[in-house]
Design brief:
This protein has 160 residues and is an alpha/beta fold. It contains six helices and five strands; from the N terminus they run E-H-E-H-E-H-E-H-E-H-H.
């Protein structure tokens, strides 16, 4: 079986993430969406909340699973037997960062390759950090995140 990993923080999941998952689900037998947990990073949503949102959003895809990872992604890949990581690219800045990361990952585990998937143009400016900032100030995020994510964000940032 040809299963690939799509790792990320997904804090929160966006339409950009979902677009990449949908496209990848047509190309590969299985997609393992891997929710990263890094103790050095501060998340708005817990790992469980992110997994719950993703599972709800991805339930129509029979070849997509969601898991949590608190190790290096290349170690997770080795444990699961995955040979390919999918990384979404919005712009040249993303590419530079992801390219360097892919080289480091390849040095850590030569069995794992990284495929870069360019985002759809309409999601090129969608960033989780910007979405959280907009939500904090009551901005309209409906074009960037699904309704369940929008609701969860506004719950985290109640209007005063």
């Amino acid at each position: 079986m040809n299963t690939v990993l799509f790792p990320g923080s997904f804090d929160p999941p966006t339409y950009g993430h979902l677009s990449i998952i949908k496209r990848a689900s047509r190309l590969f037998d299985g997609i393992d969406v891997v929710v990263a947990v890094n103790p050095e990073k501060k998340y708005l949503f817990s790992a469980e909340e992110r997994v719950d949102m993703l599972e709800s959003l991805l339930k129509e895809y029979k070849n997509v699973q969601v898991h949590v990872c608190n190790t290096l992604i290349v170690d997770y890949a080795k444990k699961t037997g995955a040979k390919v990581l999918i990384r979404g690219i919005r712009n040249t800045n993303d590419f530079a960062y992801e390219f360097d990361l892919s080289v480091m990952n390849r040095n850590l585990n030569p069995e794992v390759d990284t495929l870069f998937v360019p985002t759809e143009q309409k999601y090129a400016i969608v960033r989780s950090s910007s979405i959280k900032e907009l939500a904090r100030f009551g901005g309209d995020i409906s074009e960037m995140v699904p309704p369940i994510v929008e609701k969860a964000l506004y719950k985290k940032f109640p209007k005063s």
